[in-house]
Amino acid sequence: MTRVLTYGTFDLLHWGHIRLLKRAREQGDYLVVALSTEEFNEGKGKKTYHDFATRKAMLEAVRYVDLVIPEEKWDQKVGDVKLLEIDKVVMGGDWEGDPRFEVLRDYCDVVYLDRTEGVSTTKIKQDLGEGA
Ligand code: C2G
User: Fold this and answer.
1) Structure confidence by residue, pLDDT tens digits, 19-59
2) Which residue from 11, 18, 91 has its CB within 8 A of the most atoms of ligand 1, so it is best to mutate?
3) Which residues are CB-contacts of 55 (< 8 A; sequence separation ≥ 6)?
4) Ligand 1 neighbourhood includes 120 CB (under 6 angstroms)
């Protein structure tokens, strides 16, 4: 059984997120999503529209997702991979080569998938006239 893990904020869940989750799940048999908490997002200067509980419930409703855990800090990833016996970490291409993911190659495979062009949470907010 190939166990896959991905990280993200997944705010205002959109087609780019769903496509990522679908392709990540297709990389194995079981998909874990580590979802950023509000506290972690504050550290990234990100404010989400939906709170953690709502973003978690939305992800749990997606057929490709088997488990959602909190992402609370940048340096939890090695522990996550070990504890959850992850075989493969999958991220969108905007993370390609990022040392925070490359370091995981000592513990599991790391795969980057191309981003879905033309859609992002920021763009949705801008298109709706709410600014970035
Ligand atoms: N994504 C994508 N295409 C888009 C938008 C997002 O493939 N049009 C992917 C991103 O590359 C990421 C995932 O969807 O792999 C989640 O995107 P975000 O919610 O924006 O997450 P991010 O801010 O990249 O947080 O520790 C890592 C961070 O938690 C990742």
Assistant:
1) 999 999 999 999 999 999 999 999 989 899 999 999 999 99
2) 91
3) 9, 10, 11, 13, 35, 48
4) yes
